[in-house]
Amino acid sequence: MQNGMHTDRERCVRAVQSKDARFDGWFFTAVLTTRIYCRPSCPVVPPKPQNMTFYPSAAACQQAGFRACKRCRPDTSPGSPEWNQRADLVARAMRLIADGVVDRDGVPGLAARLGYSTRQIERQLLAELGAGPLALARAQRAQTARLLIETTTLPMAEIAFAAGFSSIRTFNDTVREVFALAPGELRARLPKKNAPSGTPGALTLRLPFRTPLNPDNLFGHLAATAVPGVEEWRDGAYRRTLRLPYGHGIATLAPEPDHIACRLTLGDLRDLPVAISRCRRMLDLDADPVAIDDQLRTDPLLAPLVDKAPGRRVPRTVDEEEFAVRAVLGQQVSTAAARTHAARLVTAHGDPVDDPEGGLTHVFPTPDALAAVDPESLAMPRTRRTTFTTLVRQLADGTVHLGPENDWPETRARLLGLPGFGPWTVDVIAMRALGDPDAFLPTDLGIRRAAQELGLPSTPAALTARAAAWRPWRAYAVQYLWATDSHPINFLPV
Description:
Elements: H1 9-17, E1 28-31, E2 36-38, E3 52-55, H2 58-63, E4 67-68, H3 82-85, H4 89-98, H5 101-114, H6 118-129, H7 133-151, H8 156-162, H9 168-179, H10 183-188, E5 202-207, H11 215-224, E6 231-234, E7 237-244, E8 247-255, E9 260-266, H12 272-282, H13 289-296, H14 303-308, H15 320-329, H16 335-349, E10 351-352, E11 362-363, H17 367-371, H18 382-397, H19 408-416, H20 423-432, H21 445-454, H22 460-467, H23 474-482
Parallel strand pairs: 2-4
Antiparallel strand pairs: 1-2, 1-3, 5-9, 6-7, 7-8, 8-9, 10-11
Helix pairs in contact: 4-5, 4-7, 7-9, 8-9, 15-18, 15-20, 19-20
């Protein structure tokens, strides 16, 4: 699908008339007669085409004076896949806005992270999304407020500040404007069986995604590589600790047929939107599996793998710097050995957390904490010790920065300049930490073995040439190739 789908009127009308859920999040339908905006799959009778107009974001609809539909709740549709498959300024800005940067640091903070002027960023976001960074952040605050109103018993004043509003009046005005209901009316509309319950700080919600979604390699990978104390698989759910802007949290995530069941325990409710954004990113929930699988099926040797188990996602991370450290710890050792190395560092240098359910004990150590580790205490070969200490030192002093706003080619080049960083390590970080959907691992032993079994070229150069037809989704091809093996990463734990 091309950028700016909302400009293709004929295609948008067809998607709305067929109630096609695949396009939820790609564009929004605003109805001129009712002044309401909907997702394409809205269950109500579609409006007449002449009464439809289309916008690229919920924020643009709100800015144009449209209110969110109470039936299809367009503010809760999956995010646009574009922001995770593109590496340009707009996509990088959107990833940072989802991570709460505008709420914490304002538009100047967003601009500083991206290395552009505030004027350039505002101009580009307006041109492509019909809304500037403040309007986009405001739409996110409204969505967070609605979530807290409907899933907790918190007083409205606490919800206002937890959602990032500067005053209760602004909170009330925004909720009324966006949802055409006062905050109290939103809560009163809930059926009694859905009435909020539970303790403040523990939230239960659903994370939507585009179908199909195959949970096997996604949760299998996260569970098989889980670092004791930081992650665990328990009662059909993956659990892990989170380091967040205002405190620590714990996420519990379980696959369901049409959503991911998510329970968040947060030390500070202001971290809710960031926690949701990071969980969605880790589980790759904003991907467009139909577009990805259709492209990979064009290769007759990959097609049977896709048809057998469509909808594979790339298991990613909630913390880019943590993943880079773990990638180094996993160089040339087994999965079990990498977990042992990481667990020792966690116990010695991670911040302790209180897990009401037991099992999780720490958040992963910061680069600052790891930079202070005595290299002689690390049970690894001297060359890998040098790789580890160089990485954590450069992460700690800011020479290397890893985050959602990273420029992928530039970051790759910077990482390749570090001692002990070859193409495999850099591409694993690009795929799973930076979120590059086209990262590829032609030298990986599992990939080469799978290629040979399927009749694909098995030398790195020949396989890379063949994989050109899989672009821009080679990271997903990696998941399908890995899945031919019986390694635990490919299976949901029993």
